[in-house]
Amino acid sequence: MNAAAQAVTIVMVEDDEGHARLIEKNLQRAGVFNEVRHFTDGTSALEYLVGAGRPEQRPFLVLLDLNLPDMSGFDILARLKADPQLRAAPVIVLTTTDDEREIRRCYELGCSVYITKPVNYETFAQAVRQLGLFLAVIQVPPTP
Amino acid sequence: MPITKTMLGQLSLLLMTIGFAALLATGAGLVWLIENSRSFATGVSATEEVRLAASRVLSLLQDAETGQRGYLLTQNSAYLQPYHDAIEGLPRELPRLERMVTATGGDTGAIRRLHDLAGAKMDELAETLARAELGDLQGALAVVRTDRGKVAMDAIRQSVARIEAQSAQEVAARSAALNRNGRLLLIGAAAAFLLILAVTIGAALLAWRYTIVLETAQAAIAAANSSLEARVAERTAALAAANEEVQRFAYIVSHDLRSPLVNIMGFTAELQASIEPLAALVARLEGEAPALLASDARLAVTEDIPEALGFIRSSTQRMDRLINAILRLSREGRRMLQPEQVALDGVIGAIAGALQHQLEAAGARLEVAPGLPVLRTDRLAVEQIFGNLLDNAVKYLDPSRPGRIAVRGRRTATHAVIEVEDNGRGIDPRDHGRIFELFRRSGRQDRPGEGIGLAHVRALARRLGGDVECRSAPGLGSTFRVTLALTAPASAPASEDSPA
């Protein structure tokens, strides 16, 4: 198995540009240099992940915001977990609330980690790393 | 026409009066008829007496004539006895007859004629007898032969017959009157009976109509009641919906307010991180080429920017806490109450244990009166209520005197009343209402807090079917009185859907 070919792509579904930028910066600061694909709405994210022209057999890690303009993050989570190819992909839910019922529902739907914003980026980066390693991630070091 | 109660009373009274009057009239008529019959009977017997007396007079006169004839035939004076008896009896009998006729209202003219005729007859008899006693028998017979006596006697017979006929007529007339009166009374009684019947039916009809009116009114009241209940249910539902709406609003607002805040906090941290290399650069410049370093640039990097970042950070953190508080309150409002048996002794005891350290540090004493009520309510909510109140009591003690906090309770028919009293610094009376509002605090702001605790206490107490009120005097202490329903009201099930 080619490690480079199996590099995990991080798919970030986040409508707030500021949040997205902060997440990216902090991932890099924590030493996670995987490719990050950013989508600001659920429709385009689903189009990329489960649509007709989706990339074959690539490992994904999904960072999912629950409050999206066009659909609920729960819907996306349910779609991902219903897809045979993507079922194993770890999903980190990032949201602004720590409502118990939302957290429970996310775990019931199969999310891997639930993180409340504002993010403690130390634990966040650690979680990303662990989930990535679990999926045999090879971190691609930045080309100097 | 609708019948009112007053009208029913008046009409009933009127009908009853009519019926009673008819009954009274019938009774009076009966009494009158009885009186009438009695006077009729008296009248009939009086008339009989008249006839009897008249025939006695006739008989006396006939006896006198018979005596005269016998004497004229025999000249034996023994035959004159009836004649003498008549002479003696007539002056007695004739006035008697006259009195009777007068008494019965008969024709006195006939009596007077009879009187005259009797006188004439007796004169004739006396004349013949006087002649015969003197021996003139032929003369006496000649007087007889003149038929004077016979004519008088015939007239007397006719007169008596007339009196008798008159009497009989009177009896017949009285009898007819009696009959007529009886019939009249019968008709009257029948009419009275019909009237009473009509009155009775009228009264019954009236009562029936009034009953219908009452029933209609009752139905209207029942309808009004049921519509009132429906309206109450409607309002309650509307209120519950409004409450739900407020909860959702609070949830959504706090949710959406946090989004930009995350950016402010995140990029503040980025700025903080970016300022570090700049500060290092400034430090190096200061050492190596101080001429290159403008003093205001150095000030900006070493003081102004860190100060600004500090304020931004503390403000955003505070805002984060406030938003979290709103979120917590809204979440608390959405939480399902789980009523269970809650002994306040145990709840307060546990809180006192948790506060022990703070109490000791403040040198304060907490006295819990034994025998606090036992409720059927939500344990968590009660714990939060008294946790907040006791926390406040410890937090706002007056350092100038030893702290003393007392908890006591009693129960009424429906509620438990628990008082938490302290001898702390007290609350300005102006603020007694304000302190229960969200983010409002009273007095010197020298203690940590966001102004959430009491708002939370009030919201919880109200959810548990009670309330909280405050009595306090600045410098003396405060008493918070919590009333809680002995049995907490059933809470509406919070919707399980995500509010997002």
TrEMBL record, chain A:
Pfam family, one: Response_reg
Alphabetized SUPFAM superfamilies for the sequence: CheY-like
Signal peptide: none
PROSITE patterns: RESPONSE_REGULATORY
Modification 4-aspartylphosphate, positions: 65
Keywords annotated in UniProt: Phosphoprotein
InterPro entries linked to this entry: CheY-like_superfamily, Sig_transdc_resp-reg_receiver, TCS_response_regulator
Keyword Phosphoprotein attached: yes
Phosphoprotein found in the keyword field: yes
Positions of the Response regulatory domain: 9-132
Protein name in UniProt: Response regulator
Organism name: Belnapia mucosa
From TrEMBL, chain B:
Domain Histidine kinase span(s) in chain numbering: 252-488
TM annotation in the entry: 12-34, 184-208
Keyword Kinase appears in the UniProt entry: yes
Signal peptide: none
SUPFAM superfamilies xref list: ATPase domain of HSP90 chaperone/DNA topoisomerase II/histidine kinase, Homodimeric domain of signal transducing histidine kinase
UniProt superkingdom: Bacteria
Reaction catalysed by this enzyme: ATP + protein L-histidine = ADP + protein N-phospho-L-histidine
Top EC group: transferase
PROSITE patterns assigned: HIS_KIN
Keyword list, A-Z: Kinase, Membrane, Phosphoprotein, Transferase, Transmembrane, Transmembrane helix
Its EC number(s): 2.7.13.3
The name this protein goes by in its record: histidine kinase
Organism: Belnapia mucosa
